[in-house]
Amino acid sequence: MGLSLLSGLVRAEMKFNLQEPATELGHKVYDLHLMMTIVCGVIFVAVFGVMFWSVFVHRKSAGHKAATFHESTTVEILWTIVPVFILLGMAWPATKTILAMRDTSNPDITIKVTGYQWKWGYDYLKGAGEGISFVSNLSTPQPQIRNEASKGGEYLLEVDNELVVPVGKKIRVLTTAGDVIHAWWVPALAVKQDAIPGFIRDTWFRAERTGTFRGQCAELCGKEHGYMPIVVKVVSEEDYAAWVDGKKKAMAAAADDPNKVYALPELAPRGEKVFAANCAACHQANGKGLPPAFPPLDGSKVVLGPQDEQIKVLLNGRPGTAMASFKGRLSDTELAAVITYTRNSWSNATGEVIQPSDIKMARE
Amino acid sequence: MAAIPGGADHAHDHAHDQPSGIMRWVTTTNHKDIGSMYLWFSFAMFIVGGIMALVIRAELFEPGLQVVDPDRFNQMTTLHGLIMVFGAIMPAFVGFANWMIPLMIGASDMAFARMNNWSFWLLPPAAILLSTSLLVPGGAAASGWTLYPPLTVQMGMGMDMAIFAVHILGISSIMGSINIVTTILNMRAPGMTLMKMPLFCWTWLITAYLVIAVMPVLAGAVTMILTDRHFGTSFFNAAGGGDPVLYQHIFWFFGHPEVYIIAIPAFGVVSQVIPAFSRKPLFGYASMVYATSSIAILSFIVWAHHMYTVGMPVAGQLYFMFATMLIAIPTGVKVFNWVATMWRGSLTFETPMLFSIGFLFLFTLGGFSGLVLSMTAVDVQLHDTYYVVAHFHYVMVAGALFSAYAGAYYWLPKWTGHMYDEKLGKLHFWLSIVFFNMTFFVQHFLGLAGMPRRIPDYALQFAEFNKISSIGAFGFGISQLVFLVVALKCIRGGAKASAKPWDGAEGLEWTVPSPAPHHTFETPPVIK
Amino acid sequence: MNSRVTVMDDDLRRRNVRTALWLAAAAVSVFVMFLLRYGMSGQ
Q: Exposed, middle or buried: residue C5 (CB in 10 Å: 0-12, 13-18, 19+)?
C-alpha cells in the first residue's frame, strides 16, 4: 500500500489550485480565491506564530510564571475593528465579481440545459445553431466502471454528444430539470448553476480559447449522480458553423415520419437503443430491474398488460417514485419503439407492435 | 436563591432505595447517570457513523466501483451525516451539559429530573430507526443528510424512518434544552450571578435557546416532506404549484444555527480547559459572552450562503455574503481571546490542553476556509465539492470532536475518581491530529481541482489525493479506539484523582470529591 | 419511575415549571407559525 502511494506521488500531476480558467470571469474567480487564501494564510501564520511563541516560551517546564491579566479594553477593541477593515477590503473585489457573474444580458447564443436522471439534454434556443437539440450521455463503458477493463484517460468525464459552442461568444445557459435537482458545472468555464424541476435559472460564459472542458453534475440527484458528466467543446467560429450544418443535416435525416407504420423487426432494434440510453440505468439491460426501488420489466404485469396502461406510465411517469415522465423527452417514434422493445424482449413475447400513431393518440 | 429547606435530612431518606442493575439506568433521574449515558450513547453512535465513513472511504480508495453499489454509497453518506450530527456530536455535548452544569453552578440536579430521563431514552429508538432503515426494502434514505426534495420523494420507506428519527431526536433535544435553560436560569447557587458562571454554562445557555428556536423548523420541514410523499401535498413539487427551493431555505434556516449548536458548546469546553492549563484566568470573559451571543444571533441571518447556486437574485447573494463575512468578527474575537489567555501563562500540555490547542489551530483553519467559501463567486466554484467537505470536517471533527475529547480528558478524573493514562491520551491526540489532517487536508485540493461531493466513483486525476485521504481515514478511525481503551482503563482503576487534579483549574466542580458523589450540592454552596 | 428525585422547595419548582412552559410555548409557536405560513398557503 505504501509503495503504491509513493508511485502515485511520483506519477502525480497533483493539482493544488483551481483548474486553469478559460473565461475572463474564471480568471477573476481564480485571482479572488488566491487573494483570499494568501490573506487568510498571513493572518493564520501571524495568530499562530503568537500562539506557538507562547507554547515554546511561556511553558511551566521552562519555569515561566503565569501573569494575571485577564482583560484589556484597548486590545479587545483593536482586534474587533481591524478585522472589519480587512473584511471590507475583501468585500470590494468580491462584490465586483458577483455583479459580473450575474450579468446574463445580450447573449450571442442561448442554450437550454435540462437535467434528467442521469443525463443532460441540450436545446439551442437562439443564435447560431437554433433548433439543434440532443441528449448527452456518459460514454464510459460499464466494464471500466466495474474494473473489468482498464480505465481510459477521460474515465467518467466523456460523453457521446458534446455541447459545442463557438469561441469568444457570450453563451447564455438556461438550466432546468425533468425530475430532481441537478447542477450544471464546468469548472474551467467558472459556471455552476442548479437545474431545478419546474423552474428556469440562467448563467453564462464566454470562452476565450478553444478546447474541451469537462465537468460533472454537482447536486446529488440519485443513484447515478456520479455518472452524468458534462463536456463542452469550444471551437472556432468556422468549425462551429460546420458543426451546426452537419448536425442539422443529421437531425433532418434522422427525423421520423410520425405516420409511418412499422414492423416488429424494424422497430425493436431502435427500441433497444432507446432503452439502453433511457431505461437501463434503473430497469437494467436484462430487464430485471433493481427491486424494490426499480421494478423488473421482464414478466411485468404492466408490460404484459394492456398497451394503453403502459403508454400512460411512460408519458406521465409515476409520481412519488423514480419513474419519470418521458412525454417531453422522447418522440412518438422513440416511445413506440421502446414500448415495442419491452413487450418483445427477455421472456416477454407479446408479438405486439406499438405504432407512433398510438402514442400520438394517447398524448391527446 | 435555590435554598433547600433542611436539604441534608431529606437526602438521607432516599439514599438506598435505588433499583440496581439495568433498571438503575432505565429509571435513573440523576444528572450524573444521565450524563454518562448520553456520553456512552454518543460514543457508540460515533463508532457506527465512523464505520459508515470508512465504507465511504474504502469505496473511494480507488476509481471504479469496488465495495458498494452507488445506491448503498448514497445511503452511507446520508446516514453518516445524520448519525454524526444528531446521534454523536449533539448528544455528546448534552452529556457534558448534564454532568457538568449542575456541578458548575452549584445545583443539586437538573431542574426536571424525570424529563431528563425521558430526553435520553428517546435517543435509542431514534438510533434504532436510523440504523435499521438500512435493512428495509429499498434501503435507507439516500438523499444526503440535507434531505433535499424532490429526490427525497423518490425514496423508499427508509426515508420515512429517517424522518421519524429526526422528529424523535428533535423532541429529545428540545426537552434537553428546556431543561438546561431552566436549570441555568433558576438553579444557580446563591451568589452565582450570570456573569460569574463558567463560560461552558454560558455557551450552553445560548445553544439551548438556538435549539428551541430552530428544531421546530426542521420538524416542520421534514413533516412537509412526509406529507408530500404520502398525502398528496405539493409543498416542494413544482408540478403542483410548490417550490423545491423553498425546502432549502427552510432547511438551512435550521441548518446554519445547527452548525453553531454544535460549535458553541465546543467553544465552552475549550474556554474551560485553556485557562486551567495556562494557569491564568480566561482573557476577556465578558467579550467572550458577547461574541458568543453575536455569533448565535448572526447564525439566523446567513442561511442562504449554503444556496449560492440556486439562482437567487444578485441582491440576495450580496446580502448573504456580507452577513456571512460578519461572523468572522466575533469568531476572530474568540480565537484572539484564547491565544491571549495562553499568552504569558504557565503552560503545561496534558492531553486536554493538547486537544484544545489542536482545536484552536484546526478550527481556525476551518474558519478561514469558511471565509473563502463566504465569497459568493468563489463559492459557486467550490459549492458541493470536496472543498466544502474538507471545510466542514475541519469545523465538526477538529472543532467539535477535538473539543469533546478535551472535555472528556479534562473531566474524566472527576467522573471516575481515577487519572487516565496520560501516555495513551497523548498517543491518541497525536495519532488523531496526524491522521485527521491526512484525511481532510488533501480534500481541499480535490475540491479545487473539481471533484464533486457525494460521488462513489471519480475521474483519474483525483486518484492520488483520494488514496491518501482513505488511508488517513482508516488511521483516524482506528486511533479512536485508543480513547475507548483509555476511558475503560480509567473507569476500572488507575492513580487516585484528588478533588482538584489540575492545579490551574477553577470552578465549583473541583470542590466536590473525585469521583463526584451521586448527590452533590444538596445544600447549595455560597459564592462570594 | 424512580422515587429518588432531588428535593426542591415548591417555590423553585413552580418557577422552573413557569420557565419551562415559556420555553415550550416558544418552540410550539415556532412550529405553529410555520404551519400557518406554509400549511395555509393553498397547499
A: middle
